[in-house]
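Action item from last week, closing it out:
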Amino acid sequence: MTNSLEDLARADVILLTGTNTIENHPVIAQMIKTAVLSGGTKLIVVDPRDISMARYAAVYLRPRPGTDVAWLNGMARLILAEGLADEKFIESRTEDFEELKRAVDAYTPELVQKITGIPHADLKKAARLYASAPSAAIYYAMGITQHTTGTDNVKAVANLAMLTGNIGRQGTGVNPLRGQNNVQGACDMGALPNVFPGYQPVSDDGARRKFEKAWGVKLPGEPGLTVLEMMNAAARGDIRAMYIVGENPVLTDPDSSHVVEALEKLDLLIVQDIFLTETAKLADVVLPGVASVEKEGTFTNTERLVQRSRKAVEPPGETRSDMDIVIDLSNRIGYKQSYSGPDKVMEEMASLTPSYAGISFGRLARGGIRWPCPDKKHRGTRILHAKEFTRGKGRFHPVEYIEPAELPDREYPFILTTGRMLYHYHTGSMTRRSRALAEYISDGWAEINPRDAKRLGIREGAPIRLSSRRGSVETKAKLSARSPEGVVFMSFHFAEQAVNRLTNPAMDKDGKIPEFKISAVKIDPVSST
């Protein structure tokens, strides 16, 4: 996030897209609702599903799934046509503006409505509200990114913020809502195939030499593989062993039957986790880790806030912290490590990662710090890009609308989209072990528009089968107008209805993110006899 969460209340307008915030980020949702109900903030919601946050919106746009670039470019064109662009900001802080103007000029209101289904008047109202606000912020999540055009979607969001000068100030910004409590921290520490900690490219000779000297090894200059690329390589036999820590790809990866086949082809599968997940059940070796409250460490959350996590209870049985397991394993296979505790790991992080240079366990004992924090006297950074962008000037990236990789046809006439529900989390490896949550919601369903259900002869709660080109699952029908006609929604929390057997593994060419949000499926009633 470019801005802090406390800054949210200073926005005159919030544009919320690709995020079912009330169910996926309920704490942040409460902050948004409070800002809106206080009367100081107007809300624009853009989502194909009729999510609960739309009840608080001054403007609600309901585009067809997978058409985000079209409506974002259409908004940019309207803002330019009505003279609402921030010319001073564009001139002093950006480049390649003329290229953007030429690209968005084709996205007339008529074309945007044809592609997205958004009425011209509604799009104009949203564009005027966002661009006219003294301070406007964009918040988005995986509804924007989990597409074959996910990178283009994010670029179009950034274009809109720069076009209106809504970046680098209070109440503005481009603010992705991270899906898990430390996914930001994991990325910061180099848990990506193309960068070292602090997003220092592995292809950068200077960065590589720095880490080679610190770690005493020779490091490759070519990026590694993403998760899906690893699974494909395992299926081909190019990867023979895999070590999975705190991840359950049997339920989270698309085309999960292919994932199972890939994992079963490995000569060795090691899984390190706190519970025996569906992935761990396939492992040759399971290394039992401990939960966050059973160890010391840090979390870096969605607003770049690094916080201490303190041990509250003793871990059960023979479980060990992830750090201790990794160090022990490393020493046994010949690479010696001797960190005395997580505070020493943090010291090394600070010494190699410029954005974390001023952060230490001692400072974090007094409260969280937002990176970048370049030295021990720095208080951390609440707002990014206040005076200039990391590269100097911000670059506009013209993008064109491209159809999703798989659209409905006569055989598979529905769009399947996936997400979460409020009462469970991710693959349910933790929440489904909660008796209270399991009693409240014990299994999943497929959310179908009542008009579609009527045509198919499907009643509320009836057993149904969803099928795609990759597999099928059986579940029950939940009739709701929250999903538009032609769209069916399922969560991925329930192994018994493993929806990712159906989803499309087609990837964004740049970000390598799978297109979880759009797969073509058919729906069939299942006889109860």
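Closing note: The longest helix spans residues 68-81.
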